């Protein structure tokens, strides 16, 4: 039973990776701007900050369970 679960997890991860590759390839057609960066914790909020200069600044909020 454990072998089947390991196999199922590996198949699911492979499918997710393949879907991500397809999405990443198609992002120029879907979005004006895409920036990818792996965070330690999921971000619940992203806000673009106004700036006088032509520099892009934004604020990312991370949420961490304290348990």
Automatic annotation (TrEMBL):
Domain of life: Eukaryota
Keyword vocabulary terms for this entry: Repeat, WD repeat
Coiled coil: none
One matching Pfam family: CAF1C_H4-bd
Alphabetical list of InterPro entries matching this protein: Histone-bd_RBBP4-like_N, WD40/YVTN_repeat-like_dom_sf, WD_repeat_RBAP46/RBAP48/MSI1
All residue ranges annotated as the Histone-binding protein RBBP4-like N-terminal domain in the record: 18-52
Name of the protein in question: Retinoblastoma binding protein 4, like
Organism phylogeny: Eukaryota, Metazoa, Chordata, Craniata, Vertebrata
Gene: RBBP7
């Amino acid at each position: 039973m454990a072998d089947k679960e390991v196999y199922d997890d590996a198949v699911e991860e492979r499918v997710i990776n393949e879907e991500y590759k397809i999405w990443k390839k198609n992002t120029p057609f879907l979005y004006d701007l895409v920036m990818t960066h792996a965070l330690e914790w999921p971000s619940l909020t992203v806000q673009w900050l106004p700036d006088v200069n032509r520099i892009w600044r934004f604020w990312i909020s991370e949420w961490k369970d304290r348990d």
